[in-house]
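Example protein was shown:

_____
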Amino acid sequence: MQTIENLKKTLGGIDTQILETIKKRIEITNQIGTLKIKTGEPMFVPEQERKMLDSLSKRFDADIFGIESMWREIMYISKREQQKLKQTNKNTITIGIQGGKGSFNDIAIANFLDKNSFDKEVKIEYLYTTEAVLESLNSGAIDYGQFALANSIGGIVEETITGLGAYRWTQVENYHIPVKHSLLLHPNASIDSIDTIMGHEQAIQQCKTNLTKMYPHCKKIGGTDLLTDNASIAEAVANGTLPKTTAAIGHESLASLYNLKIHKKNIQDQNDNQTTFVLVKL
């Protein structure tokens, strides 16, 4: 007759076998990663991962055994080890950020790099959205990612919270910077001609009260799709993608970057406005 103690010993043996098998799997995936580095093949192929998960789900009852979630965890461990191999074998570190050039994300990562150094050259990729950052991180296209997590006025950044649940990541550090918004106009526009004010939904929220008081006649629009980020909106105003009757919200440095003029500085509702950013890796 089986006893609980005997069954526990049997389980212990099975657990040891599982761990040894996972260890062997990581060794093999590392060998594959090394070969891919030599041949220049992409380290991670999402379509291949999906096929593997679909195959496992057909062989087992995924709903009962949680095969997909368990296997995603195993693959995540393998991907993380392969990413370490990739970083060891290249001369640069790539950090993908949520914003564009001149955005507060850009300023935040510059501040972080001023205080912290990597042992390799750092390259910044402007990815504009949190989802794009996390997707690039999980595909191996970037080594680290950064995005805004929360603001002292606007609260939690919704697009970040949505993205965090869909991807795997590990927090490296979090930090905050002061956020002071300016109203930016096309060089040939006057404030009297402006009928729309556009910015990231968080920027609109952080300036909501002042914008309503100072520019009651203007529509206030949070950017979407390719025009989600303050920097991309500022660029669109400058190059004519958006009409001259649209004003952008963002850091004052966007004016010099995109040849815009600053109509008014410090339009945020609170002078002590600040945003918390998170640096992540696999």
